[in-house]
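A reminder from the course coordinator: this example appears on the midterm review sheet, so study it carefully.

Given structure:
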């Protein structure tokens, strides 16, 4: 028997599974450069970017997989990358 796709036994359970260790690159957000366009927040497929009480965006590295979509969508280059250390 061949499994064609993953089986999701409990929809919405990804919040229980920290996936931050999958990264090769870590996005670094510079709130000084950030213009609060929310592109990073909108395009993050993991919902790992949230706005704090001061209106600054923060990356939750427990769930960030390092796809760097946030960096590619930032119009002012406020997000850079660094290689993740082992």
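Designed residues:
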């Amino acid at each position: 028997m061949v499994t064609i796709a993953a089986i999701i036994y409990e929809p919405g359970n990804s919040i229980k599974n920290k996936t931050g260790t999958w990264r090769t690159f870590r996005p670094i957000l510079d709130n000084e450069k950030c213009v609060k366009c929310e592109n990073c927040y909108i395009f993050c497929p993991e919902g790992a970017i949230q706005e704090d009480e001061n209106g600054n965006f923060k990356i939750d590295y427990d769930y960030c997989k390092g796809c760097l979509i946030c960096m590619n969508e930032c119009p002012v280059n406020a997000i850079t990358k660094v290689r993740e250390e082992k």
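The first helix runs from residue 39 to 43. The beta strands are 25-29, 49-51, 57-59, 79-83.
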